[in-house]
Design a protein that fits this description.
Cytochrome Bc1 Complex, Chain D, domain 2, binds heme C, three-stranded mixed beta sheet, mainly alpha, two-stranded antiparallel sheet
Amino acid sequence: MLSKSQARTFFLGGTGVFTAAFLALTFDTHRRVPAQTHADKITPAVVRGKHIWEDNNCMGCHTLFGEGAYYAPELTKTVERRGPEFLRIFLKDPEAMFPGQRKMVNYHFTPDQIEDTIAFLDWCGKVDLNGFPPKPPLQKSVMPVAVQQITLTSTRTVPPIFQEKTCLACHSLLGKGVPTMMMPNMKGEVIAVPSLDEVYKRKSRKDLVTWITNPQAIKPGTPMPALVPAFVSPAQVEEIADFLMSLDPSAPQPASVPVAAPKAN
Ligand code: HEC
Ligand code: HEC
């Protein structure tokens, strides 16, 4: 048994030690915050994006740094996961990218507001969170969809339209774009987004045009977004189809392909 004075010393000593430890750790955390958050990278656009985030109650559906509601995806790493092109189109018209699924509100943001929102989310994604969020264990439920082409023999360059129209935010093409993105379809299965390198082997030109124009009509429940006509015009679909078909080595090669022929002076 402790005497009364021993108990008092024990209580005061213990409280003192733990208060000191608490203060030291608090001080240490605050000392690290500017470096871990890259406080020097908080540009005016990031600040404006944070106001957009708060004014629209995005946290009512999303989590950011793990905080918020669990209805919609965690957004800390969304810029890394999706890339800015995808988010630009997504924020302009959220339903276009996830046809027929849960709906995100269309806020009718101006292009500047979209850039600010992306700047804010990009800054969030670069904060050092000691490994949060963990990588999801997607591999277990992956359904094999199409064989990804690995041997790149073509020397063709990818026309800018594939980048501008966000195809490369999900697909790979001649080594450009996303190597293998996984996406859930409406049955809750996770599928691999096929590479477009050898799509000429799987689809005729006509099927390609129909598919890009209205994927849901061909494969209800597919996660491939309906980008026509809001983002991609019918004429651009023809241009895309022409290029993809021309990757067939046996197809007549378009005249616009730069040929590395020696110049005759
Ligand atoms: C009513 C609920 C709701 C609100 C509010 C909401 N979202 Fe969403 N958001 C969603 C859902 C659901 C998705 C999943 C995609 C879909 O099905 O449309 C999503 C997806 C996203 C994505 C794409 C995530 C990814 O990695 O694919 C971004 C970025 C995003 N939201 C940003 C925002 C921002 C910024 C705000 C506030 C201005 C906001 N959201 C407010 C429901 C919401
Ligand atoms: C949001 C991600 C996403 C974007 C953006 C996207 N796709 Fe897709 N695409 C998919 C997915 C997922 C599939 C596989 C669909 C399935 O099998 O259900 C697919 C399938 C395809 C196919 C069929 C491939 C095959 O092997 O049969 C073609 C062709 C295609 N996409 C072209 C395009 C083009 C062209 C663009 C740009 C205009 C584009 N996609 C933009 C996700 C995307």
